[in-house]
Every structure is written in structure tokens, then in C-alpha cells.
Amino acid sequence: MKRLLLSLVALGLALTAPAMAQEEQSTAPYAYRQLDDPAKETKAQDLMESLRCLQCQGQSIADSDAPIAGSMRSLVRERIAAGEDPEAIRAWLIERYGDYVSYAPQLTGLTWPLFAVPVFLMLIAFLLLRRRFTGKTGDAK
Amino acid sequence: MSDTPPRAPRWAIWLPLVLFLGFFVLVMIGLYRPADRNVASALVGKGMPRFDLPPALPGRPGLDSKILANGKPHLVNVFASWCVPCRVEAPQLGELAKAGVPIEGISVRDTTENLQGFLEENGDPFQRIGADDDGKVQLALGSSGVPETYVVDGKGKIVYQHIGEIRPEHLGLLLGKLREAQQ
Predict the structure, then answer these.
(1) Using CB atoms within 10 A as the burial measure, which of A68, A82, A95, B65 is most buried?
(2) Which residues, if any, are the signal sequence (chain A) (predicted)?
(3) From CA A81, how far away is CA B135, in angstroms rounded?
(4) Which regions of chain A are under pLDDT 70?
(5) Pick from A24, A26, A97: which is nearest to B142 by CB?
């Protein structure tokens, strides 16, 4: 299933962006190399999984083989190795690319419905169901 | 009529169909007019980040961002030899250079040999070319691909970002932005 999805994504990319068929080597040092410290690597991995690749936009930079994703992984790993806080790195990228680069939406004036609507729907469902379960008498004619 | 009157109004029977058609139309619009997938830099209107890139070619200057605040508007072109649209925009960059626009290059994830070959083949409109081997400066600029071209005013502020190749029809627009930046 996953493979089918991946090939569908690949097909979609091939159809929409033929210009992406570019060959080159990523020369960023930590694009494909893990950090030696496993704790830091885990931290970096967690952050990389929640950052969007700017070229293959359905993928995180941890999953993407696009060259720019390699550069972003290297940036994340080098900064984590230097002791920077993961959220500071995310903020640095958002400052440059906008909220779009992050898969972890922030609560802002624009995004609050994202958080409010589920709560609101649950509330409505609860009220409706309560009427159905308890309000048989009120419903009968 | 029957003895159990219908609970819902008669038109309600069409509701699922109408909802389905609405959904169908939405999908079709999405299919035939996909959204713009370009990720614009959030730095437009802000200062150019500071960087100092080593020369991409021996004997040629590298690119220090200080030069972008020398009082004259510049074009900063983010490119690579491995990028096909960069070949498409080369003639337009050549024309801009001929018109006297200072063009600075940031060569992303490239090698000296490939870059030399690319410039021999497509012309060299650049005053300086900085080598951004690990793509860090590209990320610092908020650039999400190649080619991209930034119009920087004489004070080092990014006033415009052109995403994708510069086609002949974009020349007027870019020259206009440069003129605006001069004022």
C-alpha cells in the first residue's frame, strides 16, 4: 500500500514538474550522515519529520531525496549538534519560508478554527446524542 | 397520503446528490486548476541576510552580502549548472547584464568543472559568483529552488523575488522593479 502510494506520488511529480528531473549530488555534510550522538540524532530526526520539503511538498525532509531537503537536514543536524533548540530552528525556517515549511501548525489568528472546529463538532455531537439517548419522551407525539 | 407523514421535507431527498455534485465540482476545479505550489520567501521587504560566500571559480570574486548595500540595486540569481530552467533563462540574464544591471550569482550545490562548462555554454552574466556548496545561503534567503532571482535595492533590502526561470516577457517587470529600487 505504502509502495503504491509512493509510486503514485512519484507519478504525480513526474507529470506536474518535469523540471525536477535534475541530477546532482548534495554536498551538504550531514545530508545523509547521522550525528554521532544518538540523543542529538533523535532530536534532529524528530524535527526533520515535522518539516516540509520545499520541492516534494507532500514529504517531510526526513523522507525526501530532493537536494534541498538534503541541505535542510544538514542544517538541522549541524545546528542541533551545536546545541540549538529544535523549536528555534523551526522558527528560523518559518521566518524564511512562512508557516508552510512546518507540519506543526502554530495557534494564530488564522489557524484557530483548526483547533476550535473539532471541539465544537464534538460538543454538537454530544448534545445531539444526549437528546437521542435520553430524550425519547420529548420526541414522542 | 399515507398514514405516516414524511418526516423530512421532500426536497431533502436531493440533498445527498447536491452535496456529491458540489464535492465533484470542487475536485474537478482542483484537478484542472491546481493551486500555486511556489513557496515565496518571507524575506521580501526585509534585509538581505548576511553571508560571505567563497568564490565559485578560481580567479573570480566570491560573493559577500556587503556588496549588495553599496547604493546600487542588484540582481541576485540563485542558480546551478544541474538546473535545466537555468539554461532557459541564461539569454535573458545576458540581456540584463548588457543593459548594465549588476548580476550576482549564488551557485548552489555545484562543482567547479560543471559550473565552468555551464557558463561556457550559456554565457556568463555574473559580476561575482559565490559557491553555496551546502545550500545554507539558499536556505537563509528563503529560496525554495533554482532558479530564483532577487531584486535587492542599494541598501541591501530584498524588494522582489522572481521564482522560476526569467522568460523574455519578465524582462520589463524586472527592469521596472530595479528602477523602483533605485529611487
Answers:
(1) A68
(2) 1-21
(3) 18
(4) 1-26, 135-141
(5) A97
> Is residue B41 in a domain?
no
Q: Quick check: B33 pLDDT over 90?
A: no
Q: Give the pLDDT confidence score for residue A141 in this predicted structure.
A: 46
Q: Is the dihedral of CA B166, B171, B175, B180 positive or negative?
A: negative
Q: What is the CATH number of domain A13-104?
A: 1.10.8.640
Question: A38 to each of A30, A32, A44, how far by Cα in Å?
Answer: 14, 15, 10
Claim: this prediction has a pTM higher than 0.80: no
- Count of C-beta atoms within a 10 Å radius of residue A134: 9
Q: Is B149 helix (H, G, I), strand (E, B) or coil?
A: strand
Question: Tens digits of per-residue pLDDT, A19-54?
Answer: 443 444 557 889 999 999 999 999 999 999 999 999
Is the pLDDT at B101 greater than 70, yes or no? yes
ipTM > 0.85 (yes/no): no
Backbone angles phi, psi at B85, to 5 degrees: -60, -20
- Domain assignment of residue B61, given as a range: 52-182
A34 contact B CB<8A: no
What's the total number of domains in chain B? 1
CATH number at residue B107: 3.40.30.10
Closest residue, chain B, to A99 (C-alpha): B42
List of chain B residues whose C-beta atoms are within 8 Å of the C-beta of residue A16: 34
- Asked, for residue B5, whether it belongs to a domain, the answer is no
Contacts of A66 in chain B (CB under 8 A): none
Q: CB of B143 within 8 A of CB of B78?
A: yes
